[in-house]
Amino acid sequence: MNLDVRSLRTFSRLAHSGAEKAAGSLTTLAGIDTYVNVTKVELGTKADVENEFAERDLVSVNIGFSGGLDGRTILAFSPESAERLVDALVPGMDPTSGDGELAASSLKEVANIMLGGFIDGWADYLDTSIDITTPTYVDEDSGGPLEEVETDGFEHQDDERILVFRNQLEAADDAIGFDLYMVPTSQSIGTIVEASGDDGALPVESFAAFSEMICDGANQASDDITAMTGIDTAVEVSRLSFVPIEGVPMSLTDGVRRGVVLEFTGTPSGYIAILFDEPSAENIASSLLPGMEADEAMRQSAIQEIGNIVTSGFLDGWANALETTIEISPPRHVHDIGSAIVDPLATDLAQSQEYAFLIDSTIRTDDDEFTCDIYALPDENELRKALEQLSPAA
User: Fold this and answer.
1) Which pTM does this prediction carry?
2) CATH classification of the domain holding 176
3) Which keywords accompany this UniProt record (predicted)?
């Protein structure tokens, strides 16, 4: 099975269109004005998705689909958003009370209508019929929302990799936010790729190999942080997303972040941001400069130094795997909300491309002493060259 940028654009547009139908269904059903914030096509592992559900304590409703396409759709809410939605549907009912079964039933009704409309868009595009199962409420004691998702065709060195279409939706008043996931089988992805009709597609193994390269880079960066600070760290998540270029800033939270931004050149080229939340930045400075953390210039220098080390560790593995040289610019210190930091990077890439490959890795300590987020935005043309080098036929 092959994938390419044209296929991914088709996936993204279909997913966004379907999510808009789902948002419209919720508006009609509950009277809640809802919009699609950002649509991503993510290549990651089942474990990454399951861990995110567990960490965020998400409430979800699961619906399978089969026929012209096979797979799973999931509507996932934070507990707070689920409570507000249930209250909009059944005013005055407490979803944590004895009416919990009724609350789950209300969420299943919402999911059935929203996800049904979402799948209809794919059926129309493929000119086929797609049947959906009855909704299943997924609680915290279950095996997880992706327990039965097929990974055949995406496995690479024993990793269960999946392609996930993920839409982030929000109510206009920000009172309710939720994610809509679609996880098709590998065979179904092949069906969509064939419908997009691009002869220049690359084997999915190329994307899987690049995704693994990202994981290796994140692990090296984690080891470098541990060696530099003496604090044990681990990679929590590392994934490759395909997102409209204007959606890149919306992929970050609006929390204030400190860190560095660097440009890298070679194959591939692009930008990378190493960002810490403010408590993490303070802890990093204290680890590297004990007793001198009150000196702002020294603190900034420490953050730049660790940003430079993390970037080198993250990208050196790429250069080795691709047998190329990747040069990095001096680190530029940044201190702003996350979306404002990456917005100029996305704007620069937008001069030559409509979509971006966003690489997102998170490194953290067990006790949350600090968290380091790595965001890389490679140039699309240069990334394609890298993927061609990773192709099994290369």
Assistant:
1) 0.83
2) 3.40.1550.10
3) Chemotaxis, Hydrolase
Same domain, 143 and 279: no
Q: Which pair of tokens denotes residue 332?
A: 């530029």
DSSP character at residue 69: S
* 192-245: pLDDT as tens digits: 777 665 555 666 667 777 888 888 889 999 999 888 888 889 888 778 888 999
**C-beta of residue 331 within 8 angstroms of C-beta of residue 308:** yes
**CA triplet 374, 376, 377: central angle to 5 degrees?**
155
Is 75 exposed, middle or buried, given 0-12, 13-18 or 19+ CB atoms closer than 10 A? buried
> In angstroms, how far is CA 252 from the centroid of its own chain?
10
pLDDT tens digits, residue range 122-138?
888 888 899 999 998 87
Boundary-marking domain end, from 151, 171, 194: 194
Query: How far apart, in whole angstroms, are the C-alpha atoms of residue 364 and residue 232?
Result: 9
The DSSP secondary-structure symbol of 254 reads S
For the chain, what is the domain count?
2
DSSP character string of 127-148: TS-EEEPPPEEE-TTSS-TTTT
Question: Does residue 13 lie in a domain region?
Answer: yes
Distance separating alpha carbons of residues 195 and 27, to the nearest angstrom: 31
Helix (H) or strand (E) holding 342: helix 338-349
Q: Which residue ranges in the chain fall short of pLDDT 70?
A: 1-4, 92-100, 139-161, 195-205, 292-294, 391-394
